[in-house]
Amino acid sequence: xxxxxxxxxxxxxxxxxxxxxxxxxxxxxxxxxxxxxxxxxxxxxxxxxxxxxxxxxxxxxxxxxxxxxxxxxxxxxxxxxxxxxxxxxxxxxxxxxxxxxxxxxxxxxxxxxxxxxxxxxxxxxxxxxxxxxxxxxxxxxxxxxxxxxxxxxxxxxxxxxxxxxxxxxxxxxxxxxxxxxxxxxxxxxxxxxxxxxxxxxxxxxxxxxxxxxxxxxxxxxxxxxxxxxxxxxxxxxxxxxxxxxxxxxxxxxxxxxxxxxxxxxxxxxxxxxxxxxxxxxxxxxxxxxxxxxxxxxxxxxxxxxxxxxxxxxxxxxxxxxxxxxxxxxxxxxxxxxxxxxxxxxxxxxxxxxxxxxxxxxxxxxxxxxxxxxxxxxxxxxxxxxxxxxxxxxxxxxxxxxxxxxxxxxxxxxxxxxxxxxxxxxxxxxxxxxxxxxxxxxxxxxxxxxxxxxxx
Amino acid sequence: xxxxxxxxxxxxxxxxxxxxxxxxxxxxxxxxxxxxxxxxxxxxxxxxxxxxxxxxxxxxxxxxxxxxxxxxxxxxxxxxxxxxxxxxxxxxxxxxxxxxxxxxxxxxxxxxxxxxxxxxxxxxxxxxxxxxxxxxxxxxxxxxxxxxxxxxxxxxxxxxxxxxxxxxxxxxxxxxxxxxxxxxxxxxxxxxxx
Lengths: 455, 194
Fold this sequence. Notes:
The complex is a heterodimer. Chain A is α/β, with parallel strands linked by helices.
């Protein structure tokens, strides 16, 4: 490979192709504020005029579209989508002829995408506009995914849809900051940008870790100066954000990357006096669903994404039966998915035409053995702990049956958590509850050394 | 190809009229409807060819992504070979099973199964291949004519497939290169990160 190509970097003109004086002033404000953090990277929206028109058109479609299908039926767009995949995508072309029966289609796994992403990119995708999204994951299958600036910008359409469900219409515009993406990691990709479809409102991706700031006290001063309409991040970053003496209040928080326990959501809602949305989002498919308590789970956000629940043998399960969340469709036209098994688990319920993911959990189920010898599914642990405002936790069962629960940011509740776990597992259960300052990013939440732990 | 077979058009017409049952999804694992091994077994019985169950092993399939197109072509061949003429011709067991397995696998690498029903050139190719592998040529053709026409059809398709495959590999290489460029790494704005 030509090493010069790999070293190629972008200019600001390429990062922000349609930047006006207003946008330039916003970037300057975000970068050069006296309390600004150390921005370690550069990125941009990469959108041309033509792209912006495309993003706007997609947004209109996404806001107006109905999301869902009737139980036992397939959405009307699905047949055409499968035909296009077989015609245009090298990987699917190898399957042969389009099947009459959708459920006869082979399934895909993360390992397939991890092996080589190139055959999943349709013949129609322009190579010179490709961007990538990388994820190391926790499953041993790192991903390098193909995407496009229009796809990245279109995430906002689904955020808007999720926010509207909570009664929030975004109203920021020129001269204001729309969103701050917060992280709390030792190392984090940080940069500033503008959102052209919101009249070049500001976007900052920052790391709340003190190492990224000249003075940790600058964090609150900087964020108050930005006063973003929305914060996005994961529960760990939000736990840190909640500790800052902020004077300003966002209109919403969007939580992604890891599960948000209900008590943690309530704690954040009380702290910020705004709705906190728990998004189910994947690098492979973007924002899939948002938690909606009255609906009984996560409601779907994308109008061209079909969700099935499959068993281990790849059979489609009935509503209410728990299995692997499997996706077909999506808005990433550089990575159309046909029956992609996400590695996440839930059941699918229907409220009329609206499918709802109930009991959504990342990763395959793990069973834990209680003192009585009874096996408990990990979802029971999640349910038991949902009233605690814990940003993140892991549970491991040793060969000898002893349990080790590690919790971050909830040390003050250790005793109550212990009691709750013993109620679930029995008073004689050997249990260590350990408070840790933080985990290093995403972790495998439930693990066990016991044979029979994987049902 | 030493023996004269049926009129070619009778076979291509039969292919064009392949019933839905023979175009259904091959059963692999828990998916699909048609048990191809059972259909092959029925065909062998119909043709009075004795066989043991182990000869049917290649027609079960294990991986849908790898096997479904091959088995779908085997099904189309089963329909073709259940024609009255083949019953009378009494093909040899080994030649027949090789046609249904190895030849189907080679054809599967070239085209989707339904093209051998829908596309006139592919229908002719499949009919000629079936005859040739069983030692026949179309009625009214000399050996040279039959060989020449099969080579023309087959090599044109192979050339097309080779060219498409080279182009696909070249594009895949460019995609891999584009994705590891620093510019692609810089990504683009998403409001949320996973």
